[in-house]
Amino acid sequence: MKIRTKLILANLFIVLFLLGSVTFALTKRSSDLVHEHIVQNATLSLSQIGQNLDNRLASYEDVANTLFLNPSLNLILDQRYADQLEAYEVYSEQFQPFLSAIQSTRDVMKVDVYTDNPSFFFSNVQLIDEGIRSSDWYKEVMSNNTGGYWTHPYLTFPKKEPVVSFRKRLNNVNRDSPSVVSLEIRLKNLAQLVDLESKNKRVIFALSDGTVLIDSDKENAVENVSELPFGGEVMGGTDGSFNRTINKESYQILFQTLNSRNIVKGMKVIAFVPTEELSAKLLQLRSLALLLFALALAVSVLLISVMSVSLTRRLTDLAVKMKRLNRDKFDSFVEVKGSDEVAQLGEMFNLMVRRLRELIGEVYQSELDRRENALRTKEVELYALQTQINPHFLFNTLNMIRGKLLIAGDRDNAKVIGLLAKSFRMMLKKGGPTIRLSEELDFISSYLQIQQYRFGDKFTYEIDVPEEEMDALVPKLCIQPIVENAISHGIELSPNPSRIRISGERRGGELLLIIRDNGLGIAAERLEDIQHRLRSVDSLTGDAHIGLHNVQHRLKHLFGESYGLEITSEAGAWTEVTISIPRDGQEEAPDVRRVDRG
User: Fold this and answer.
1) Is the peptide bond before 158 cis (omega within 30 degrees of 0)?
2) Which residue of 4, 87, 289, 394 is surrounded by the most CB atoms within 10 Å?
């Protein structure tokens, strides 16, 4: 997959995720706000319906209270009349006009007064007999602490019109009076109040026991709130709002409880708000959100495509140039535009191409020089082969002299010539930079024997190195310069016979070779100067102890900085030089020769 495609897909994924998240969050929040707004409006509407019903019921209760608080009317009901004519005159002049005024002005369908006065019996006045006394409604009125209550709805006779009655005791003047007033109210009067506020929703008005007085949905009307699937939740609460599905339709259910007076306390007003209205608004909101999302996505795709093409065009050009470079086309330079990372990459590519051209030229010239040096080396090797005869001639000459001396009986000089030939042969021996310790000590033994012939009995020597250390690898001629210095500076000038001792010992993973003499020693200032020069990287050219520096340099070069020479001395008494080399890890030599220790 091309990087351009990857960039476009990656950016589109990010944009889709971000825009989708923002759109979802905004849509969800907007939906919640719309839902809250609709529920709030429905709650206000429900509160208005409850207030209207409460006010209307209060107006009817005021009518009953008017009779309750009118002492003259109460006295008329309780007074015993001598004959029917006297009672009728009182009824027609005082009682009947008051009741007619109530029915005409207060939208009351009928007013009935119940009394136990047999002398005051007319069309709107009912005599309380045993049937009425034993009726449930009468018992309810007489036992009600509030002095009145609203009945369940019923149908009038003979018109079959649905009404509800408010009934109240008339015992203001006489606390034991059994008189009761009953006001019949047409339910349609209350339903009109509900219809004004119940557009696009169902409203139910119920008594405190759940009996439904008004249900705006005539087709699905219920008689009691308990018939609703959520009736228990409504009757058990004061007010609330929740969502329910009824007959496969979703509704937001809101309910409130009237608590303004004891008479209406517990009455419920319930509203069913279809969520279709909410769904329509939410659908409109989601459609707008999707349209904005699609528009933002299209703009994002366009911008991402343009930016990706602009970015990858230069990368593609750089890739083409790299392919040309892979085919040894070292004239492939890219055109640098801008100052971003891609431009910096182009500059580095051009710099790399120039450097490659320079390196290829240098490598080509180096190869020519190498071949020329190889030819010269061949010539030198040929010359070396031609001159190899010279050492052999020298060895043969020394051996011839040694033979002549043996024939003449001069064994001492013959031995010296033999040792000289042996030493010379070892110095010119081919091989690597290291040899076995046994071979090095063999050469030192020959060298010391020659020096003994030179100085006579001026010194003796001893070589005491454990046999198991004889296969250790040491630099060639690493002991000879130290022994030579011991003879030249410590023994030759000493008036007393001296001794040189070469010993070896293990210390951890190191092998220590100790060369000690009891000659003149080294003065403190001179010893400090020698030690300083050995620690320094500067050459000791021209110095009397250049051999020590050479050995020190070779030891550190072969084995590392932790190895080398250590010199101690006491002026006029002795000098000791210690060589430290690594012992662990060296291959053991299979053939270790025993050294002639003198």
Assistant:
1) yes
2) 87
Query: Which residues are CB-contacts of 209 (< 8 A; sequence separation ≥ 6)?
Result: 266
Describe the strand order of the beta sheet including 202-206 as a list of residue ranges.
Answer: 212-215, 202-206, 268-274, 249-257, 240-246
Q: What DSSP line would sit under 356-396, residue for residue?
A: HHHHHHHHHHHHHHHHHHHHHHHHHHHHHHHHTHHHHHHHH
Sorting pLDDT into bands at 50, 70 and 90, what band is 468?
very high
pLDDT tens column, 414-448: 777 777 777 766 666 656 788 899 998 998 998 88
* Distance from C-alpha of 389 to C-alpha of 425, rounded to nearest angstrom: 13
Token pair listed for 45: 């509407």
Q: How far apart are CA 252 and CA 203, in angstroms?
A: 12
Half-sphere exposure of 283 (CA within 13 A, CB side): 6
User: Which amino acid type is present at position 393?
Assistant: F
* Strand 249-257 with 434-436, pairing: unpaired
- The answer to whether residues 438 and 471 touch, using CB atoms and an 8 Å cutoff, is yes
Q: DSSP strand E in 437-563: where?
A: 459-464, 473-475, 498-507, 510-517
| Identity of the residue numbered 578 | T
What 8-state DSSP symbol labels residue 334? P
Q: Which amino acid is at 590?
A: P
pTM: 0.47
Q: Which residue has the tokens 């250790």?
A: 472
